[in-house]
Design a protein that fits this description.
about 150 residues; mainly alpha; two-stranded antiparallel ribbon; about 50% helix; elongated
Length: about 150
């Protein structure tokens, strides 16, 4: 039985997006306490620090020591964070082609057109333009890449 005052559980990655969004609204580097306050203060300070540390490991924030604590600055936007989550999910699957096929066939027509245009642009730029799409080496039979 749930109680009426119980807060709904956040979706995976939602809190990271909220923390990153708060950092992007700041006028400069901010403390974890500032982020906690900006998000409404219902999160424990240690939770905010944990999320910031995870974002640091994903290279979407940086930190700098100020006195006895750290101040945090975003180095990427929420879109990059979402792309990292998508990539991590894809990397965890054995049949990447099946996952990508399922993803593309489920896209609404407008999103499919955007994806096609992005892929055409990347192809037109050649291998040098693909550095943001990751490794350009040909895939091996096990889904990895040759180097």
């Amino acid at each position: 039985m749930t109680t009426p005052h119980r807060r709904a559980r956040r979706r995976q990655g939602e809190l990271e997006g909220q923390v990153l969004g708060a950092l992007r609204e700041a006028d400069g580097p901010v403390t974890a306490a500032w982020v906690q306050e900006r998000l409404g203060g219902d999160l424990a300070y240690t939770t905010v620090v944990t999320i910031l540390t995870r974002l640091l490991a994903k290279d979407v924030v940086s930190r700098e020591r100020r006195g006895r604590s750290f101040v945090w600055t975003p180095t990427a936007d929420v879109a990059r964070l979402a792309a990292l989550r998508m990539r991590r999910l894809l990397d965890g699957e054995r049949d990447r082609e099946a996952v990508l096929t399922s993803f593309v066939t489920a896209l609404p027509p407008d999103d499919e057109q955007v994806l096609r245009a992005l892929l055409e642009t990347a192809d037109a730029q050649g291998p040098e333009g693909r550095t943001s799409r990751g490794n350009t080496a040909p895939p091996t039979a096990d889904g990895g890449t040759e180097h």
